[in-house]
Amino acid sequence: MRRGRRRERAGVNAEINVVSLIDVMMLLMIIFMITAPIMQGGVDIALPTADVAPLEPKNGLVITVDRRGQIFIDETKLSFDEFAGSIKALSDKKGGGGVYLRADEAVPYGTVVRIVAAMKAKGITDVGLVAEPDGDR
């Protein structure tokens, strides 16, 4: 009798259970979707508002001046002398897509003029001043 009632063991399951892997992947995707806008770099400034069209993204060089008058090229902080000495090389390296000047609305007009004059002195003529459209605030 014992021979006839022998248990049959289940075979080895060689499949990978991917349900838990999919759960982890979806959780990571949600975390990245939430944190990606927060992680975008840049210098925090309050752009002045004006009646302007939204800016078309290009491959230009972005120069930012914060409230304290500190100059940043992309996210690298430079003194005015360093800026004036390296702006032409950085502009040429970026590929000629123009230069975009983002200045906080609290920055004195004289600081903006000095920066634009330094660029003009180095032969950079394609300079755009960045502002927020009126309806965004």
Describe the structure.
The protein is of the alpha/beta class. It has a domain at 49-136: Nucleotidyltransferase, domain 5 (2-Layer Sandwich), CATH 3.30.420. It has 3 helices and 7 strands, in the order H-E-E-E-E-H-E-H-E-E. A 5-stranded mixed sheet has the order 4-3-2-5-6, covered by helices on one side. Strands 1-7 form a two-stranded parallel sheet. It is elongated. The N and C termini lie far apart (86 Å). The mean pLDDT is 81.
Secondary-structure content class: alpha/beta
Q: Strand content of the residues, in percent?
A: 15-25%
The topology string of helices and strands comes to: HEEEEHEHEE
Distance between the termini: 86 Å
Please tally the helical runs, counting DSSP H or I stretches of 4 or more residues: 3
Q: Uncertain segments of ≥5 residues (pLDDT<50)? A: none
Helical proportion, percent range:
25-40%
**CATH C-level name of the domain at 49-136:** Alpha Beta
Topology:
Elements: H1 19-39, E1 49-50, E2 61-65, E3 71-73, E4 76-78, H2 80-94, E5 99-103, H3 109-121, E6 127-129, E7 132-133
Parallel strand pairs: 1-7, 2-5, 5-6
Antiparallel strand pairs: 2-3, 3-4
